[in-house]
Structures are given as structure tokens and as C-alpha cells.
């Protein structure tokens, strides 16, 4: 029987692999941070992400991870946001904010530039001849 071990991505200690991919101390620390956030949001549901970080002492990057993974629901708490992956503005769902999503949609709908050569599909066909009679 082999024991699967790895280095913890947060603290670097060796741990036995598990579903969370964290050592036990980092896993319990993450649970503690999440519980502090949930307790604060229970009392003040209109808190913004920055206010939550200041009140609980949890870093913004960890809060963004909680929101993206769904542990802190941005639909239940309307002021929780995380940065857009393209421009950095606040968004509540998905990877892009509304303006960046519109830009990408428009770019996908635009007509191709006539100066840029279009890809051509070359289909090679073979013709086979079948002889029905023999000539001598």
C-alpha cells in the first residue's frame, strides 16, 4: 500500500493527500476564516467585500476564492464581489464583468477583415475507375 503525500500549497508542509488538497492546519484555518465571514455576514448582510475583509481579518484574495467557489454566495449577499479577470472591475458572477462580456460578444460577431486571408479548406478527392470489360 502506498501513501500519497504532497506539499501543502499554503504553508509548504508535507501532508497526506485529501479532497481539499490542504494540510490539516491550513484546512482548519480556512474553515475558521469561513466561519468568521459567515458570522459577520449573518449580523451585517449588506457588508461589502472590503468591509468583510477589514472586520474579519481574512485577506481579500481568500474572500475572492470563497465567493468564486460558491462558499460565500454573491446572490445571497449582494455586495460581495471579486475582480473581473480581464479589466479588474468588480463582478458578482462569472469570470468577466458585464462590459468585458459585451466587448467579447461584439468581437465574436464582427465581420472578418478582408485584408486577412481566410482559411481555405482543401478537400482531396480520389476518383476510382472501374472497368466493366476487358479489351484484348
Question: Can you give keywords for this protein?
Answer:
two-stranded antiparallel ribbon, 4 helices, mainly alpha, two-stranded antiparallel sheet, 136 residues, 37% helix
Note down, in words, how this protein is organized.
With 136 residues, the protein is mainly α. The termini are far apart. The chain has 4 helices and 4 strands. The chain has one domain. The mean pLDDT is 84. The strands form 2 sheets. A two-stranded antiparallel sheet has the order 1-2. Strands 3-4 form a two-stranded antiparallel sheet. The longest helix has 20 residues. It is flat, with a radius of gyration of 28 Å. Helix 1 crosses helix 2. Helices cover 37% and strands 7% of the residues. It comes from Saccharibacillus endophyticus. This is Flagellar protein.
Q: H/E series, N to C?
A: EEHHHEEH
Low-confidence stretches: none
Overall mean pLDDT stands at: 84
Helix content: 25-40%
The biggest sheet, with number of strands, parallel, antiparallel or mixed sense and barrel status, is: 2 strands, antiparallel
**Cα radius of gyration in angstroms:** 28 Å
Number of DSSP-assigned strands: 4
Count of helical stretches: 4
Widest β-sheet, arrangement of strands: 1-2
| Outline type | flat
Summarize the structure.
By secondary structure, this protein is mostly helical. The chain has helices spanning 24-43, 49-56, 60-69, 98-109; strands spanning 5-7, 14-16, 82-83, 90-91. The protein starts with a strand and ends in a 27-residue tail after the last helix.
Q: What order do the helices and strands come in, and which of them pair?
A:
Layout: E1 5-7, E2 14-16, H1 24-43, H2 49-56, H3 60-69, E3 82-83, E4 90-91, H4 98-109
Antiparallel strand pairs: 1-2, 3-4
Amino acid at each position: 500500500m502506498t501513501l500519497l503525500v504532497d506539499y501543502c500549497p499554503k504553508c509548504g508542509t508535507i501532508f497526506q493527500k485529501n479532497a481539499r488538497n490542504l494540510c490539516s492546519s491550513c484546512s482548519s484555518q480556512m474553515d475558521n476564516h469561513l466561519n468568521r465571514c459567515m458570522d459577520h455576514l449573518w449580523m451585517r448582510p449588506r457588508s461589502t467585500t472590503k468591509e468583510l475583509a477589514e472586520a474579519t481579518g481574512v485577506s481579500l484574495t481568500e474572500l475572492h476564492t470563497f465567493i468564486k467557489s460558491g462558499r460565500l454566495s454573491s446572490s445571497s449577499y449582494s455586495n460581495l464581489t471579486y475582480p473581473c479577470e480581464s479589466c479588474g472591475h468588480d463582478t458578482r458572477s462569472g469570470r468577466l464583468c458585464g462590459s468585458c462580456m459585451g466587448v467579447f460578444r461584439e468581437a465574436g460577431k464582427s465581420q472578418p477583415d478582408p485584408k486577412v486571408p481566410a482559411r481555405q479548406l482543401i478537400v482531396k478527392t480520389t476518383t476510382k475507375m472501374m472497368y466493366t470489360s476487358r479489351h484484348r
